[in-house]
Amino acid sequence: MVWNWFIRKSSVQNKFLIASLVLIIIPLGLFGTISLQVSKDSITSQVSQSNLKTLGQIADKTDRMLDDIIAVSNQFFLSTEVNHAFTQAFDPSSYEYAMQRASFDQMLSNSIYSFNRISFQVLLRGLNGFEFPGNGMEETLSQPVSSYSDKEWYRAAVYGQGQIIWVTEPMPELTGVDRGSAFYGVRISKRFESGSPTGIVAVSVDESSLNDLYSSALDKAQEIEIVDANGRIISSGHKDQIRESLASRPYYYKIRDYDSGYFRAEEGGKEQLISFQTIGKTNWKLISYTPTATVLSSINQLQTIVILVFAGVVLLAYASSYFMARRLAVPIKRLYNHFGRVELGDLSVRLPVNSEDEIGHLTRKFNRMLERIQELLENIRLEQERKRHAELQALQSQINPHFLYNTLASIRFMLVKHKPETIDSVIVALVKLLKQSISKQDELIPIGEELEMVRNYLYIQQIRQGDRMEVRYELEEELYEYKTIKLILQPLIENAIFHGLERKGEGQRQLIVRGYMERTDICFEIEDNGVGMDLGDMESKAAGEQDEKLVHRGGYRNVHERLQLNFGENYGISVQSQAGAGTTVLVRIPAIHKWEEVRTR
User: Fold this and answer.
1) Where is the HAMP domain (predicted)?
2) What's this model's pTM, rounded to 2 decimal places?
């Protein structure tokens, strides 16, 4: 709908201007947008690939660290002394017990020396009650080993058949205290003969050992987390987030279901580029968070420059397009405005020809067209003027003989019945009426003069009819300031008297002449209570037949055609009649003071 309106009603200048801008803005905008988007996607892909590579390296380091932890666990798990301590009764105050602890301290010292990059502790718990805190830790009271059987990690370790399992949940039942951010490598020692459990060998590793693996690889504003298989954070640069769960976050399923990859998601109120990699030995996930704004900071600067350049190009294109559009549209607008003047009737318009292009040729044709129209209108005006005068004379020639005959005949009979003064007034009215009707003045006369002719005519008829005819005038005062063409009411009143009232047998004859304003028009009504007529019969006769009865009825047609000829098709007369009930003739003319006002309607 908007497009149709633009095509049909928008100016040529706007069409040219908008078309030019569209041809510039759309290609440049699409090119810039696509280029920037491709650049952003390329940078995002490169950064993601780099992050994946970094996470892969960190995963390898983590696997090697876990191998070291397994090596530490093996020293104690495979030690015959540890197995002996788990299976024999011991006396904490005996020399043998002291030698065992010294031996374990030496093993732990060797392990710490060999794997000094890892912060760990070794925990030994025998089913016989033997406990070894490790790493100089004070001995703490822990739960009996027999109470571990309801723990999930213990059942998993028993089911592991000596394989190390990785526990990321707190184990205060094993350590005696909650060590906070740590994870554990746990194994169950068994009797060789029966396979029944004898004790627990656990290595507790501090979270800082994991953090050291990736902290040096972090870029600006980048964060890395390690989560276990259940989505719980076990290592992060933000210590307050450790042990929180990612499982409820909407993007976690992408991390859970795939070994590695990257995607964009909302995190921490910002759009983040999230990359992840699986640690093979534990099925833990390394997750990297990089704010998209940081990744695209350079391209965003470029985008700002591109937008500024694009705005400059648009302004320059607008200026040049506007200049060209005006050069094309101003002559067309000038031509359009002068067409409006021509539409209002001003044919004196002429336009200068300033170019030899299509617009110049169109302007020259426009001037020639106006000259030809002036010639044709002048010819038409002269022809119509002659036609109006001919019709007026024809109408007068129709009316005057018949009217004179009837009036003189009436005066002849009045010589017997009326006083000389009455006959004199009738003759005076007749003279005035004849003088007004046959005068050579302009056909446009004041409505007051037209009504004066009507009054003189009806005075003669009232004298002629006597008391049998009643005449009533209902005329608004404001009508008298306007003008009309002459002889539009008298022929219609004459028809009403001779073909309506005089044919009425008995009863009072009544004639009403009304005049009133209706918006910008003037309406006259001539109403009689005569015999009426059949309008269909009158129209059929008017179409082809000519008889004596139709001579005066043709006055309707003559008046109607003169009104339409002078004022247009919206004006003229209309007749309402019913046989035996009377006739009403409505005359509609425009409220004007001079001929020029007719052209503006």
Assistant:
1) 326-378
2) 0.51
